[in-house]
Amino acid sequence: MASFFQRLAKVTPVAFGNAFGSQRKSGFRIPFGALAAVSGGMSYLYYVSSPDLVHLDEINEEVGPKVALSPDKWVEFKLQDTARVSHNSQLFRFSFDPTAKLGLHVASCILTRAVLGQDAEGKPNYVVRPYTPISDPDVKGYFDLLIKVYPDGKMSQHFASLKPGDVVEVKGPIEKLKYTPNMKKHIGMIAGGTGITPMVQLIEAIMKNPDDKTQVSLLFANVTPDDILLKQKLDILEASHPNLKIFYTVDKPTNNWKGGKGLISKDMAEKGLPGPGEDTLILVCGPPGLMKHVSGDKARDWSQGEVAGILKELGYTEEMVFKF
Fold first, then answer.
1. What tens digit of pLDDT does each residue of 269-284 get?
2. CATH topology for 2-175?
3. Residue ranges at the known binding site for FAD
4. Which terminus of the chain, N or C, has less C-beta within 10 A?
5. In this structure, what are the phi and psi dihedrals at residue 127, rounded to the nearest 5 degrees?
């Protein structure tokens, strides 16, 4: 439990008392010690009567490798705890067999599914949304999701209603960008809001690998300084890794704000990103408005589509840009 609080200190500047006030009364429902004792020497999957659902449980280790995710079956993961990261964003930690890894690739996401009502025939009405875990893919026993809770967001509102012990169905991983160390000399990133999550996944993979010499430049856009997710974590990574450079910009700066102001501009991109070239890759992730402004949207079939916006004006080609 203590390790969770220590990790959260690097994720968010919000005080523990505010972040966990309501949760401290009940605490974790599954103590780490008890969970480790029960699951030692076991794996975690067994199939039930439903053909498309897998439950976390204990079976013999011979069944397969210790990987919690399944690309073909929905797996139930239990919510361990939550923490508020900003005024409209929360961190959710889900637990599983502490001897297993999630099975996530860099860079990839997962699909989450929840039953929200019934259709006209009385069958379950499923809502499915993709999310990118921000926890280390190599960590065992848990994964973390950082989710912005929208007033009209069906899935985000569902997540916000969850209590420790509740479960969410997950499938994956869904590969986005197949990253290999040193695949490019310089990677530029443009992120807006929760579009930072795949960037964090990739940044951490690069920075923890001493053999990966990739230079990383991040432009991170938000509405206000308080909306900047994971800023403390990113600042620590930047301070300890000379190959990481970060530039923040906000639409509504405060009086003491020292970063950029307004939307990501052509000038910001030109100064903050590596120039076009064979050893350059620019990654973009954010809300539709940012995508259209910076790189253009994906095609209707969800392929990458043509490069447009600021990146096209600066001379980047489709081979140099990847849209999450």
1. 999 999 999 999 999 9
2. Elongation Factor Tu (Ef-tu); domain 3 (2.40.30)
3. 129-131, 146, 148, 154-156, 197
4. N
5. -115, 130
